Amino acid sequence: MFHKQRRSLKKFMNNLNSILIEGNLVKDPAIRSTVKGTQLCTFKIATNRFYKLHSQDPGFEREVSFFDVETWAKLAELCYTKGKKGRGLRVVGRLKQSRWNDVDGKPRSRVTIIAEHVEFRPEFKKEEKSIANMEDTYASEDAYVTEDEYPSSDVYDDEDNKCVSMIKDKEIEAVVF
Questions:
Q1: Mean pLDDT confidence for 99-125
Q2: pLDDT over 70 for what percent of the chain?
Q3: Which of 21, 37, 90, 129 could form a disulfide with 119 if both were Cys (CB 3.0 to 4.6 A apart)?
């Protein structure tokens, strides 16, 4: 009997659908509410990939990709208030494919990232190279800053459901949903 139950459970197991992506906001996030009042924040991020065409070439080629992201509820509110064009972020979530027929009856589809966790990079002032506006934002390593310049340490607090980071002796919190 256990063997039959085990086989029937396999029908309902989810396949792995997980994504981690880093990039920059292409424009300011947009927020709206559903009919029941749930917040939905949508934004687009751009990611860069550098590669060499030939091993003899001295330079690199750049490939830019754009991805649509959705966040819901409290995470949507946070992304709307903290996000602005050009800000770096890391998104952890899953992929969702939407399918529909257009007005001509042709099938269409689009893949969107449904975010479950978002981390904002710290904002740096170009002239001072100081960290600004990080009172309650989780900071991830910036691609252009070495660990020697801004060493960080993370502590996760289960009771308050927060991740506390230390960067250059400044404490930063992120709410984990």
A1: 93
A2: 64
A3: 90
Mean pLDDT of 24-39: 95
The pTM of the full predicted model, rounded to 2 decimals, is: 0.62
3-state secondary structure the chain: CHHHHHHHHHCCCCCCCCEEEEEEECCCCEEEECCCCCEEEEEEEEEEEEECCCCCCCCCEEEEEEEEEEEEHHHHHHHHHHCCCCCEEEEEEEEEEEEEECCCCCEEEEEEEEEEEEEECCEECCCCCCEECCCCCCCCCCCCCCCCCCCEEEEEECCCCEEEEEECCEEEEEECC
What is the reported pLDDT for 145?
Answer: 36
Q: Where are the domains of the chain?
A: 16-51+60-120, 121-177
